[in-house]
Design a protein that fits this description.
It is a single chain. By secondary structure, this protein is α/β, with parallel strands linked by helices. Among the domains are: 46 residues; 176 residues, P-loop containing nucleotide triphosphate hydrolases (Rossmann fold, 3-Layer(aba) Sandwich). The chain has an eight-stranded mixed beta sheet with strand order 6-5-7-4-8-9-10-11, sandwiched between helices. A three-stranded antiparallel beta sheet has the order 1-3-2. Helix 3 crosses helix 4. It is globular and about 60 Å long. The C terminus is likely disordered. The structure holds guanosine-5'-diphosphate and magnesium ion. Magnesium ion binds next to helix 5.
């Protein structure tokens, strides 16, 4: 398989580039907005000659279908979502399970990394222990490494050690940390941030099924114009993850960070959450370390996580 990414001012021009470079048989794996929201970026793939097998028509399709169905089952992806993904994967008419999986993921989900966090404050919400504070520290580290000014506001003032945990990171990074308990304090803290700074708001974990908790969280979220990002640890029960994601989507979350992807052995809950909450995949937490512990997700990297043996199997076959 050959993968190539093309950037052009419009979809039509990008498609022309794909055809010119990879030919008519190219399969579109993902389409995204270009950098800064300008233009279009298309990733396309083409199977290389040595990958064509000599099996009769239809056999390869069945193998792809089986590979994808097996991996979705192993990951505990809910049956209805798995069925939709398999149907799309088959329709792409490719012999390569990785391309089929990536293409299906691209059609069913949206992907947009959190790299451009300077415009609106990024507000991290989710269950207690989801990984919000570590994600805030990772985002701040990334901004500092790019020499951007970053301010962090924590609303986790009640829990013992809530502030201290973050302060330990921000001291090392030399980043300003403020705390805000009420909507008015949150507005004040935002006003006090450095002009043009990237702002990250680390929220206290709440219970999305408790009316009082939800009201308090929503009041804080409404106090400022921020991008609400749902943070959830990968693994666990897919149905439960879907219900939690839906609850946070109702509170205004549009993107999702899945943490502890390095620990999780089944990603059904991650897919089910994004599907139920119609959440855009932003990033994944790939380690407990602050530096380099966060990675953007795209259809291909997610497909690789779901088909972990695929690359190894193909490499073996090529030997
Ligand atoms: N291995 C690993 N650990 C993580 C990751 N994200 C968070 N953690 C750990 O998960 C625990 C809870 O994280 P924390 O940020 O305090 O959660 P919060 O309650 O949502 O703020 C901590 O021990 C973190 O170090 C990750 O991506 N990988
Ligand atoms: Mg926290």
């Amino acid at each position: 398989m050959r993968l190539k990414t093309f950037t052009a001012p419009s979809m039509g021009e990008a498609m022309q580039l794909v055809k010119a470079h990879l030919g008519e048989d190219a399969i579109i794996v993902s389409t995204q907005k270009g950098d800064g929201g300008i233009g279009v970026r298309i990733t396309a793939a083409i199977e290389t000659a040595d990958e064509y097998d000599e099996e009769p028509d239809g056999v390869a399709d069945i193998e792809v279908e089986e590979d994808i169905a097996d991996s979705l089952r192993q990951h505990n992806v809910p049956a209805d979502l798995a069925e939709r993904l398999i149907r799309t994967a088959i329709s792409l008419d490719t012999d390569d399970p990785l391309i089929a999986m990536a293409g299906a993921l691209d059609q069913h989900f949206k992907f947009q990394p959190l790299s451009k966090i300077t415009k609106r404050p990024v507000i991290l919400v989710g269950l207690p222990g989801a990984g919000k504070t570590l994600t805030a520290a990772k985002l701040a580290t990334r901004a500092v490494m790019k020499k951007k000014t970053v301010n962090i506001i924590t609303t986790d003032t009640v829990r013992a050690g809530g502030y201290e945990q973050l302060a330990a990171f921000t001291r090392v990074l030399g980043v300003d940390l403020m705390s805000a308990e009420t909507p008015a304090e949150l507005r004040d803290a935002l006003d006090a941030c450095a002009p043009g700074a990237a702002v990250i708001v680390d929220c206290a974990g709440g219970n999305p099924f408790d009316e009082d908790d939800v009201r308090a969280q929503v009041n804080l979220l409404r106090a400022i114009d921020g991008e609400i990002v749902f943070v959830a640890a990968a693994g666990g029960d897919p149905i439960e993850a879907a219900e939690i994601a839906e609850a946070y989507a109702t509170m205004g979350a549009r993107r999702m960070v899945s943490t502890r992807i390095d620990i999780a052995r089944r990603l059904g809950a991650v897919l089910a959450a994004a599907d139920a909450g119609r959440l855009t995949f932003a990033e994944v937490g790939i380690s407990g370390a602050v530096a380099e512990g966060l990675a953007p997700l795209n259809p291909i990297s997610l497909a690789r996580l779901l088909l972990p043996n695929h690359a190894a199997v193909r490499d073996e076959a090529a030997e």
